[in-house]
Amino acid sequence: MKIVVLDGYNANPGDLSWEPVSRHGDFRVYDRTAADETVQRIGDAEIVLVNKATITRDVMDACPSLRYVGVLATGYNVVDTEAARERGVAVTNIPAYSTASVAQHSFALLLELCHRAGHHSDTVMQGRWQGGVEWCYWDFPLVELDGKTLGIVGFGRIGQATARIARAFGMEVIVCSRSARPGSDLRFVGMDELFAASDVITLHCPLTEETRGLIRKENIDKMKRGVRIINTARGPLVVDGDLAEALRDGRVSGAGLDVLTQEPPRDGNPLIGAPNCIITPHMAWAPIESRARLMEIAGANIAAFISGRPVNVVNP
After folding, report:
1. Is the domain of 150 the same as that of 274?
2. Which one of the listed residues 28, 157, 187, 282 is annotated catalytic?
3. Can 263 be counted among the known catalytic residues?
4. Could you tell me which residues are beta bridge partners of residue 99?
5. pLDDT at position 182
6. Which pLDDT score is estimated for 80?
7. Candidates 19, 37, 263, 289; catalytic one
């Protein structure tokens, strides 16, 4: 079978092997593919892998050999799954490959808000400690997490991993989820109660019409003054301007974000430069261990499809 990867750079910028995928056929990988190059690069390939490149109805019509689209991510909105179903094209995703990494990154953001270790290290390297009078200093209020309440919105694998880490820090954990998890001893609450009770709110829910704009002025007004907000899920869960304004007036004392509404933020974003806001470039998923796991699952998905027993299919 012919296998084409349209935008492989982010999953594998050169520090991993494509062998888990390439062993299944005649293989070609492109770092990036513009929309007007998609059809030509797919050609007569039966299997296509994408990350952010889009596979539309028109693309499928122009590539009649296509039988399988593997998304190198958990989210699969880049593929018209209904059109794929109509044409007998299987679409798969890669669930759970970055659970530990994203939960870890959520706490990296939170700990940076609590201690500003990076900032203080920079000041030491710039000579401030050497020239100081006192034996210690700090430029931001320092925060101890023990005893604070963490509100988790969404309780899939990442939300559950985040809860385990929070408990190790001595935090009280409350959860708002579409469904309680049998056997969990955590307290499940409604969204308004979570907003009112949490010292820190961390988002781990999917982007739906219900959750779009979840962090907006109306809901920020329901939160504790000084709450901290973490988002490693999807950028549009947050109304950027409302959160930026809340950071400026102190209703929110800090935000740690790995995702934004527009990525990259070509048109600017009110959160860039907002006080007490830390933004990382959608990298929570990207430790080498997670990406190696992604590669193995992508290869296993293809093998299962070729064998006639497909797994991780999102358009059955």
Report:
1. yes
2. 282
3. yes
4. none
5. 65
6. 98
7. 263
- Determine the structural domain holding residue 92 and report its residue range: 2-97+288-306
Quick one: tokens of 124? 């030491």
Q: For residue 185, what pLDDT is reported?
A: 87
User: Is 93:74 a contact under the CB 8 Å cutoff?
Assistant: yes
Q: pLDDT, tens digit, for every residue of 296-310?
A: 999 999 999 999 999
The total of structural domains in the chain comes to 2
Length of the chain: 316
Question: Per-residue pLDDT tens for 114-171?
Answer: 999 999 999 999 999 999 999 999 999 999 999 999 999 999 999 999 999 999 999 9
Residue 118 CB-density burial (10 A; 0-12 exposed, 13-18 middle, 19+ buried):
exposed
Same domain, 93 and 103: no
Q: Which of 67, 105, 234, 291 is the catalytic position?
A: 234
Are residue 117 and residue 69 in the same domain, yes or no? no
Task: Using a cut of 0.85, tell me whether the model's pTM lies above it.
Answer: yes
Verify whether residue 234 is a known catalytic residue.
yes
Other CB atoms within a 10 A radius of the CB of residue 139 amount to 10
Which CATH number is 191's domain given? 3.40.50.720
> Is 19 in the active site?
no
| Residue 138: CA count within 13 A, CB half-sphere | 10
In a domain, 128, yes or no: yes
